[in-house]
What does this fold into?
Amino acid sequence: MKLTFSAADEAFREEIAGWLRDNLSGEFAQLKFRGGPGDEHMFPAERKRWEQHLAAGGWTCVGWPKEVGGRGASIEQQVIFFEEYARAGGPGRVGHIGEGLAGPTLIAFGSDEQKQRYLPGILSGTELWCQGYSEPGAGSDLANVRTRARQDANGQWLISGQKVWTSLAHESDWCFVVARTDPESQAHRGLGFFLVSMHQPGVTVRPIEQLTGTSEFNEVFFDEAVAADIVGAPGDGWKVAMGLLGFERGVSTLGQQMQFQNELDEIIRIARDNGAAQVPAIRQRIAEAHTGLRLMRYNAMRMLSDNGPGDSSALVYKLHWSSWHRNLGALAMDVLGPEADIIEAAPYELTRLQSLFLFTRSDTLYGGTNQIQRNIIAERGLGMPKEAKGR
Ligand SMILES: Cc1cc2nc3c(=O)[nH]c(=O)nc-3n(C[C@H](O)[C@H](O)[C@H](O)COP(=O)(O)OP(=O)(O)OC[C@H]3O[C@@H](n4cnc5c(N)ncnc54)[C@H](O)[C@@H]3O)c2cc1C
It folds into this structure.
């Protein structure tokens, strides 16, 4: 397992830390530590401008290969980038679905023309993406997708159906949509992976109000919406969609550890100030949170070390971080004590930690629920029999 960084990596750390020090200033200073979990509705226009500023500095898509316009940063440097970004209080990235999911998927599965068409907008922070996977009847069981794609007389693909929980759809220019190309097909066969512009008459976005009172995600309705492209062949959708999920669980999740450290530090500061740190049960939970975060880092480093094929250690990562973060939200409330129950003004004037508590309930759902993670660990990691499926 690799736990240290080389001198060149540390020089890279200095470079990004210095750039952030110089640039998270002026109009962007107000964005520091904003736009994270439970705060994702704040400063959307300013955060879009920040995304483009970051791009102008050459700091979007650092892990993409140089041939497609990225920095070609090594895994270690990507870890460093995400660490320093969070340490500096870099705002929640509005471009993360394009940079972390759509882009790598296009790089892996897209044609040269598709790369030329879509990657520059992600690199420059001018075109934002959302993920159209989940549907009312297809979440954990994604293969149950019902959204249809049919070809018209000109060979153009038209998409009809409903997606749900689509994060940032209201801010996005593009959506990648998993839809059924063969109406007779079942499960993971007969699906396609489509790129659909959000700016057309056949697309309707309806916000869903969350527990936090904000609307980070939406219902999205497609009514004969024109797909600009299909990635891979009709019927390849499952392969492409699963390739993308690999990126979702990859290095882009690492930056959050530093953000978690920021949150834990704030909770410890409050516990010291209000005396909660003197309560043995709270001290114990703070110590557990600290230990859990260290373990998360070692796990991430192990995951990113080349342990060869068959290494299944990465399978525990999502379950660990999501459960840890949910527990941190609960710890924050107990450290605050009765103050945690008071809302400044009805209906939803929440403090950052109140929002954190509510938002972290969703960490154990999106990107694969905890139950699904346990199934994956059991079946793929431990080789246990596959779960029985109902008829
Ligand atoms: C904040 C947030 C943002 C999201 N953003 C997006 C997005 O941008 N795009 C997108 O496509 N989706 C998004 N999602 C949707 C997310 O991927 C789904 O919520 C998730 O896959 C679970 O699906 P579901 O909600 O349909 O729940 P269901 O699949 O109906 O599950 C309900 C419950 O049953 C359990 N369960 C289901 N199957 C099994 C099983 N086989 N074994 C044991 N237990 C099981 C689950 O663990 C869960 O507790 C988002 C969700 C959240 C909360």
User: Anything to note?
Assistant: The mean pLDDT is 91. The two ends are 44 Å apart (CA to CA).
